[in-house]
Amino acid sequence: MSYLQLFTNSKIISIRYSYFKYINYSITYIHFKYLPIYKSSILII
Q1: Most exposed of 8, 30, 36, 45 (fewest Cβ within 10 Å)?
Q2: What does the pLDDT read at residue 42?
Q3: Residue 13: closest CA among 1, 24, 21, 2
Q4: Domain boundaries in the chain?
């Protein structure tokens, strides 16, 4: 019972961790992809 609970908890944590990593990665990607465009548009204005 306790072992099963631990296993489920660790699976949930790892799923959350990978989800967080994915979100973090996409934020970084968007940041590096679109921030230079944003900055250059400010410079143009």
Answers
A1: 45
A2: 64
A3: 21
A4: 1-45
pLDDT in tens, 1-45: 577 888 888 888 888 888 888 888 888 887 777 777 666 666 655
What would the two tokens of residue 42 be?
């400010």
Residue written as token pair 């908890």: 9
pLDDT score, position 11:
87
**Residue tagged 């250059």 (tokens):** 40
29: amino acid identity, one letter: Y
